[in-house]
Write a structure and sequence with these properties.
- By secondary structure, the chain is mainly alpha-helical.
- Helix content is about 40%, strand content about 10%.
- The protein contains four helices and three strands.
- A three-stranded parallel sheet has the order 1-2-3, sandwiched between helices.
- The longest helix is centred in the first third of the chain and has 22 residues.
- The protein is flat, with a radius of gyration of 15 Å.
């Protein structure tokens, strides 16, 4: 199992800044991380692996809006971001965790943000 979380859980910014998410969203993501870690322990004997991917900013309509609000920038294209900002890169992390090659990690929170 792979859960998709958010950097909002790590930022814990007041009043929704910088991503206008606020406490309810951050709490939900923190609960998701806790669910994943608990489930990983509970399902370990059945060979079920549970991990979390924190994708960071993705170049989508929402991502562009968030960057504009937080930084005043309209352009989040790959040339402006070191990781390319694409959903495809994040998908590769999820695909790896679902593959045979990832048969060991469980209960992990993986920040798949390309260092960004």
């Amino acid at each position: 199992m792979v859960f998709i979380s958010s950097v909002a859980d790590r930022l814990r910014a007041a009043n929704g800044a910088p991503y206008n998410q606020g406490a309810p969203y951050s709490m939900a993501k923190a609960a998701l991380d806790a669910l994943a870690k608990t489930s990983a322990r509970e399902e370990q004997r059945q060979g079920i692996h549970v991990n979390v991917v924190v994708p960071g900013l993705v170049d989508t309509e929402m991502g562009r809006r968030l960057v504009k609000e937080a930084m005043g920038i309209d352009d989040v294209s790959p040339r402006r971001r070191s990781d390319g900002g694409s959903a495809r890169g994040r998908g590769r992390v999820v695909a790896f965790l679902c593959s045979e090659e990832a048969g060991y990690p469980t209960g992990q929170v993986i920040e798949g943000d390309g260092g960004g």
